[in-house]
Amino acid sequence: MTDPTQDRRFLQDPYPTYAAMRSACPVQQVPTGSSGHSSYLITGYAEAREALGDARLSKDTAAFFAGKGSRRLHPAVAHNMLASDPPQHTRLRKLVTKAFTTGAVAELRPFIARVTDELLDQWPFDERFDFVAGLAVPLPVIVICELLGVPESDRPDVQRWSGELFAAGKPDVIDAASHSMADYMTGLIAAKRLHPGGSLLDRLISARDGDDHLSEEELVSLAVLLLVAGHETTTNFLGNAALALLQRPTELDHLRKNPDDIPAVLDELLRFDSPVSTATFRFTTEAVTLGGTDIPAGVPVLVALGAANRDPERFPSPDLLDLDRDATAHLSFGHGIHRCVGAPLAKAEAEIALRAVLIRFPGIRLAAPPDRLDWRRTRLVRGLASLPVLA
User: Fold this and answer.
1) What is the tally of structural domains in the chain?
2) What domain range includes position 205?
3) Per-residue pLDDT, 66
């Protein structure tokens, strides 16, 4: 399998390739970049779910890459909660969960609705415009920045750095963005210590579990992780969901007439075109057998969440968007101890945004052929660079 970020046909529709690979073997050895090294790619649902919950697959990227190159990612980006194993991960997640509650998401709903309406107020009628730039990008950025307490004037920089962290094939750009983001969050944390408020970041600063609390490095790391993960995937979720519906007039019309059904179909939209194509980095700490394939110790394992969500063994007729399907077992938010802590927030934003669009713009339609759409050139996330529409 060649580098998928260089194949426009794969970016447009990776699922036939994944299906062919899964049919041959749900766990395969694949080349990794141009280094001559290889990884193991998982495309089957059962194997993916097993891998995501297998403690023998470590997420400690610092341990794996120690002494293996000249990457200069800021430690706050390279060594975050997502890139750690128990007991460190358990400790960090427990402290984060104390601050990142479902109650906080519920309290944000009026703010999400207000921001959505303000963004939709700027949409033109009967003119071509970009759904991604006009809603899918700004809404999650504004929401997560509001939640963390990032001042409005700083949000364009934060959005730019976050996007650069996913610049496939541009390690210097990624490394520079990691330092810019971490330096900014270090300064913001210092400012909040001097002038405390009620944001999630303030709550993380004061979060304790007995005598345990977050160190300065851990605070910066968690803030960067929540900021990036808190909007990148939601942006892709909104764009992918909109495209799936706009290509299917019957389903779109049903939701237009029955907007109260939107919460119930979000899992199927997530399953159908996952906003995270490949789960974040894992490697084997010992020899592992998955899907009948023997994987040696010390090699990367790539879990293709998008492929697993299209496995016909778990989801019959997987290439069909079925709004009546029970898709709650999808893996788009991961599985196990690393399952996305921000899943409720992502679903709340998608529900509110899609409902508002369908109510305010009932005639919304694609303004470009689907096969001409531009997809982001990264293997980690799957999302549209733009989505031209008419309303």
Assistant:
1) 1
2) 4-390
3) 66
